[in-house]
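Entry:
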Amino acid sequence: MDLDWYNINLLQPLPNTPIFETMVQQGLVDAINSEVMKFNSGPFGKKRKKEITYSHRASPFENKNLDSIPPKAEFEDIWFYMNYHLNFERLFKVTSPTKLDQQLKYISNISRSIAPDDPFPMYFYAYLQKKVTGRIEKEIISRLESCLESSEYWATLFGECNLSVTQLKSGEKA
């Protein structure tokens, strides 16, 4: 579809809706008291509680029956794979000044407000800053370096995606 951004979310069925009732009947979700249910506008809250196990080298769809429902344990990996490949990785190929400026503004919002502790939006915000303005705010590099230095998980995931702070500083493409 060549959208500017693909909003990918895990299904969160709402109580008292037909899909929720169907999923209760199928045993896919538990019947709950809707007054105590907490909602989430994406996987960000859940991702902080459990780090995903995604490996950049393998698609979560590889060697899978695509007509079956994947196990719940794979949902976060599928979300990350789709979000990274549909939204972030393709930013390396954007050349239109208008599109670059739009994406810079969008990623700025993600990096500063929606997921301020997620290194992927930080990285691509810095990348787009460099591409659009020729420089990167020191604060964003500092936040990114801090995240990567304090988390072996994020450092490993960045390595698997061939991303590094050194690339940002030098202006190299991944």
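DSSP finds eight helices and no strands in the chain.
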